Amino acid sequence: MGAAKRWAEGLAAWKIPQEILDQAPGSPWGFPAFLFAAHDVPIGALHRVARAALGGEGTVLDVGCGGGAASIPLVPPATRLAGVDSSPDMLRSFATAADKAGVSHEEVPGEWPDVSDRAPLSDVVVCRNVVYNVPTIVPFTKALTRRATRRVVVELTEFHPSVGLAPLWFQFWGIRYPNGPTADMFIEVLSDMGYKLDAEREVRPSMKATSDPDRYLEFVRRRLCLDPSRDAEIAAALAETGQGQDEITVVVVSWQP
After folding, report:
1. Which of 109, 123, 136, 149 is 20–30 Å from 175 (CA)?
2. Rounded Cα gap, residues 203 and 8, in angstroms
3. What is the distance of C-alpha 241 from the center of its chain?
4. DSSP character at residue 155
5. Which residues contact 48 (CB under 8 A, 6 or more apart)?
6. Is the Cβ–Cβ distance between 144 and 155 less than 8 Å?
7. What string of pLDDT tens digits covers the 257 residues of the chain?
8. Hey, how many other C-beta atoms are within 10 angstroms of the C-beta on 252?
9. Which residues of the chain form beta strands (DSSP E)?
10. Coil, strand, or helix at residue 52?
11. What are the two backbone dihedrals, phi and then psi, of residue 129, each rounded to the nearest 5 degrees?
12. Are 60 and 247 in contact (CB under 8 A)?
């Protein structure tokens, strides 16, 4: 079985049963914009690699831009930014952050790679915390590469971001979820595609460490399809299982187009 097929099957294994979704008080999908604000992310390997590729100046395309955490810190040397996102709220947050940074920008609404032809060809393409939402990873990655002239830089967590909540899914719903897919599997997919890769790992503060505790609890509750009456149980379970660690490992993978 090829790496791309194993990647897709690993993501499919995280499907939430329909009967749980039907009783959920709200959608468990998506993220609040504050989690992806440009000022909330530590400056790290993604930014260093992208800056090196930009050199003195250049343009940046941010795919799955959120509030601009991957691209806004690149100003300068970035002289123009473009953001792609399916969420209007995220695009508004991105545009506001770009205005504050004093850089020209444009926004492209929609799903990648469906809207890739509408995105500007850019010196550097960055993509942060997106690929675990993409089962058809090969066309997604090819589209990233087609829009870059110097380098593509992708950041993802070492393990699927829901792995840390797997014990809570078992506790509250009796569901056993897998330990993947992983960043190593993503690297294997890219290697099968023939890309010559650079990859590095770094440890950084987790969402739990950088979020208001009440907001983090709300996020976990929504992910677990539970209602606010279960907050005390969720908080106790997080403490008991040690989930919601203060640090996580991320992997930054980059290649030339």
Report:
1. 136
2. 26
3. 24
4. E
5. none
6. no
7. 599 999 999 999 999 999 999 999 988 876 555 555 544 556 789 999 999 999 999 999 999 999 999 999 999 999 999 999 999 999 999 999 999 999 999 999 999 999 999 999 999 999 999 999 999 999 999 999 999 999 999 999 999 988 888 999 999 999 999 988 999 999 999 999 999 999 999 998 766 656 678 888 888 999 999 999 999 999 999 887 666 567 889 999 999 99
8. 23
9. 58-63, 78-85, 104-109, 122-128, 148-157, 198-205, 247-255
10. helix
11. 55, 45
12. no
Alpha-carbon distance of 48 to 70, in angstroms, equals 11
Place of tokens 């595609």: 193
Q: How many helices (H) and strands (E) does the chain have?
A: 10, 7
| Look-up of token digits 């290697």 | 191
Chain centre to alpha carbon of residue 57: 25
The Cα–Cα gap between 184 and 133 comes to: 16
Cβ neighbours around 165 below 10 Å, total: 21
CA 154 from chain center: how many Å? Answer: 9
- The two three-digit tokens of residue 24, written as one number: 């959920």
How far, in whole angstroms, is CA 73 from its chain's centroid? 16
End-to-end CA distance of the chain: 26
Q: Which amino acid, one-letter code, is at 145?
A: T
For 176, residues 6+ apart whose C-beta sits below 8 A from its C-beta are 166, 169, 170
CA angle in degrees (0–180, nearest 5) for 140-68-116: 30
